[in-house]
Amino acid sequence: MKTSIATVSTSGELPEKLEAIARAGFDGVEVFENDFLAFDGSPADVGRMVRDHGLEITLFQPFRDFEGMPEPLRSRTFDRAERKFDVMQQLATELILVCSNVSSAALGGIDRAAADFHELGERAAKRGLKVGYEALAWGKHINDHRDAWEIVRRADHPNVGLILDSFHTLSRKVDINSIRSIPKEKLFMVQLADAPLIDMDLLYWSRHFRNMPGEGDLPVAAFAAAVADTGYDGYFSLEIFNDQFRGGSTRSIATDGHRSLIYLADQVRRARAVPDLSIQPMPPRAIVNGIAFVEFSADEEEAADLVRMLETLGFQKEAVHRSKDVSLYRQGDIRLIINTDRHGFAGSSFAIHGTSAYALALVVDDATNALERAVALDAEPFCQPVVPGEVEIPAIRGVGGGVIYLIDDKSNLGRFSEIDFLPVEDETEVVSAHLLHIDHVAQTVAYDEMPTWLLFYTAIFEAQKTPMVDIIDPAGVVRSQVVENASGLLRITLNGAENRRTLAGHFMAETFGSGVQHLAFHTDDIFATAASLRQNGFKPLAISPNYYDDLEARFGLDTQLSDRLKAENILYDRDEHGEYFQLYSPTFGEGFFFEIVQRRGYAGYGAANAIFRIAAQKKHLRPDGMPKA
Ligand SMILES: O=C(O)c1ccc(O)c(O)c1
Ligand SMILES: [Mg+2]
């Protein structure tokens, strides 16, 4: 598959955009007229700059309000087109995108439009240029690719073809099967964009909320499959108008875009019997069967505090690493590793972020395949030297520059703790809190980064994203979206912070970036767990008594249950599937915390309780936002 992206899709100045686009691995770019006009160099300079990056100019755009104009406007639009043709020849690019007329002066009439395109085709042909026609979803007369195709067909000119744009087709729910009857040589370009489903004016939705295929809710893969069925072997080109992208990191948007196209091509290849789109086959999405461990990096002092908190939670030290300052704590199937080694990646991670859960290890069906797929999808592989005899676990970089280890049972990876660690006898008097496994990992990211990580996880791992929910913090809103698999063995909540006064925003600001902000452990008996925690001297996060009065009213709970919940500071929620119980630790450091949950069939994450939990946690931070001594 040949990949392209419109310059409008990323932030920055033209040279910066081109650099990032080339580095991300694209083959071509659509040059947007405004990006070009805002640049000081001549059209020939721009053309050279593009080619110096090894990129091809896939088209020049947009040319507006062309077809169906009455005179004297008609003559003027042709003059305008000739001027753009001059520019294209200097840029050394062949194709111009003409989008359907939105002017109130446009007369309509399919044959009139076809005649205009025939003449434009004649003029373009004289210069060796081509014209592609795209139906804007809000075009005055033409707003459906089927009508645009009829005009192109009637224009009957070899230099005039159709341009499809998934947004315009899918936003209007135009039947994508209609694409399958278009001859491939008349498809001059295929533009791709996704978007979240929001009920709003089409133009506004298109200009501000488009996102990369896979980041939104539109069936872009089905659209691309219909295109592939025509035998189309030209460019797939991203054209993303998005307010966040315009202000975001040029490089990461370009990388996300490239990843989205590779993932899309993989989906199309899998959906179809005949492998084509000429993309490299890659292993399927990795199946995640659990979290093998979470690793913290810390210094000695903070590690001691962390260990004290873990002990109150019922964890015991099980083993120490053979060659590094690393200890493994265990309860049920939960393994937490504390790394105080000053060398290697853990040390540098500590130097930047302070104490943090910088690495996650996922148990996958096949670690080698998972790594291969991740790398094919532009993930950055991670490795650091290991002492001979120790297990080298395949890994990639994840959220906030952290590490995702990939472990399976097919090799000795699954035995890393026996091979790399020596068992120890923990003498501390601790009772088990009946914690069984990690229920979910909550990662806090900047709001702008959310689509990046949703795409990252869902492209590499067999998992779905759930709809976005709002978490109300007394100081603002935090958006939360979950990546989870059908078995429930992978559950990651991504929380997007918009300002630094929210608990999530404070965490991001003070730990210098995105990362794991909380870990939730599962128990089968929240009250038994609460009793054991008390024995261990655990102090739960104190919840306002008013919360429990409201619970009784909201859910019709009997007083006995609500009194018990109140006595233990347990939060409660219910959905159509069942009940949910939550118990929190106070915050640790800059807002990190632990949660204990019991799910009785419940599918969510207790979003409605978050405001009460956050209000309580904020009491543990000093008014200036710093943790209390
Ligand atoms: O929003 C627009 O005007 C616009 C312009 C050119 C395109 O290719 C498009 O999809 C939208
Ligand atoms: Mg378009």
From TrEMBL:
<dbReference type="InterPro" id="IPR029068">
    <property type="entry name" value="Glyas_Bleomycin-R_OHBP_Dase"/>
</dbReference>
<keyword id="KW-0413">Isomerase</keyword>
<dbReference type="InterPro" id="IPR041736">
    <property type="entry name" value="4OHPhenylPyrv_dOase_N"/>
</dbReference>
<comment type="function">
    <text>Catalyzes the conversion of 3-dehydroshikimate to protocatechuate (3,4-dihydroxybenzoate), a common intermediate of quinate and shikimate degradation pathways.</text>
</comment>
<feature type="binding site">
    <location>
        <position position="165"/>
    </location>
    <ligand>
        <name>a divalent metal cation</name>
    </ligand>
</feature>
<dbReference type="GO" id="GO:0016853">
    <property type="term" value="F:isomerase activity"/>
</dbReference>
<dbReference type="InterPro" id="IPR043700">
    <property type="entry name" value="DSD"/>
</dbReference>
<dbReference type="Pfam" id="PF01261">
    <property type="entry name" value="AP_endonuc_2"/>
</dbReference>
<feature type="binding site">
    <location>
        <position position="595"/>
    </location>
    <ligand>
        <name>Mg(2+)</name>
    </ligand>
</feature>
<dbReference type="InterPro" id="IPR050312">
    <property type="entry name" value="IolE/XylAMocC-like"/>
</dbReference>
<feature type="binding site">
    <location>
        <position position="518"/>
    </location>
    <ligand>
        <name>Mg(2+)</name>
    </ligand>
</feature>
<dbReference type="Pfam" id="PF14696">
    <property type="entry name" value="Glyoxalase_5"/>
</dbReference>
<feature type="binding site">
    <location>
        <position position="134"/>
    </location>
    <ligand>
        <name>a divalent metal cation</name>
    </ligand>
</feature>
<keyword id="KW-0479">Metal-binding</keyword>
<keyword id="KW-0456">Lyase</keyword>
<dbReference type="InterPro" id="IPR004360">
    <property type="entry name" value="Glyas_Fos-R_dOase_dom"/>
</dbReference>
<comment type="pathway">
    <text>Aromatic compound metabolism; 3,4-dihydroxybenzoate biosynthesis.</text>
</comment>
<feature type="binding site">
    <location>
        <position position="239"/>
    </location>
    <ligand>
        <name>a divalent metal cation</name>
    </ligand>
</feature>
<feature type="binding site">
    <location>
        <position position="191"/>
    </location>
    <ligand>
        <name>a divalent metal cation</name>
    </ligand>
</feature>
<dbReference type="Pfam" id="PF00903">
    <property type="entry name" value="Glyoxalase"/>
</dbReference>
<comment type="similarity">
    <text>Belongs to the bacterial two-domain DSD family.</text>
</comment>
<dbReference type="InterPro" id="IPR037523">
    <property type="entry name" value="VOC_core"/>
</dbReference>
<protein>
    <recommendedName>
        <fullName>3-dehydroshikimate dehydratase</fullName>
        <ecNumber>4.2.1.118</ecNumber>
    </recommendedName>
</protein>
<feature type="domain" description="VOC">
    <location>
        <begin position="290"/>
        <end position="409"/>
    </location>
</feature>
<dbReference type="InterPro" id="IPR036237">
    <property type="entry name" value="Xyl_isomerase-like_sf"/>
</dbReference>
<feature type="domain" description="VOC">
    <location>
        <begin position="437"/>
        <end position="586"/>
    </location>
</feature>
<dbReference type="InterPro" id="IPR013022">
    <property type="entry name" value="Xyl_isomerase-like_TIM-brl"/>
</dbReference>
<feature type="binding site">
    <location>
        <position position="440"/>
    </location>
    <ligand>
        <name>Mg(2+)</name>
    </ligand>
</feature>
